[in-house]
Amino acid sequence: MAKAKKEEKSPLAAVATPAAKAPRRKEYRRKREKKHVPSGMVYIQASFNNTLVTVTDGDGNVVTWASAGSIGFKGSRKGTPFAAGQAAAVAAARAREAGMRHVEVRVKGPGSGRESAIRSLAAAGLHVAVIKDVTPIPHNGCRPPKRRRV
Questions:
Q1: Where are the beta strands (DSSP E) in the chain?
Q2: Which pTM value belongs to this model?
Q3: Average of per-residue pLDDT values in the chain
Q4: Which positions ≥6 away from 98 have C-beta within 8 Å?
Q5: What is the pLDDT of residue 11?
Q6: Which option is the CATH number for 39-133: 3.30.70.1130, 2.60.40.10, 3.30.420.80, 3.40.50.2300?
């Protein structure tokens, strides 16, 4: 069997090929304008695995959000009340920077972080006017998962 010869490349061959491109210009994003919103809504989605806190203006446009996972908790720690409180505190601090003072809170889900998230919002300086539970309840819809035998 004959062995294939290796092609010898000269140092100038890499420069001459069209594959070598000129360095691209760096594209800069314009910094977003800070919104000034005096009042809005806070949506708390508390599941067993994580807690999401979304702050919106009156029209439903998102001002800021935070979750237990986004602030550094991993695994089963994301579902704890402490993690939910920390996520709510981060979201509330960002909302205060946007000028928000008065909020209505809508809570959804069965998670353990519901109350601690609301307490953190109030402790961060947001005036909580209304707390509403908007957890969807089935009227005998989907079959629930089977019971766990632990």
A1: 39-46, 51-56, 62-67, 102-108, 127-133
A2: 0.74
A3: 87
A4: 34, 35, 36, 37, 63, 64
A5: 60
A6: 3.30.420.80
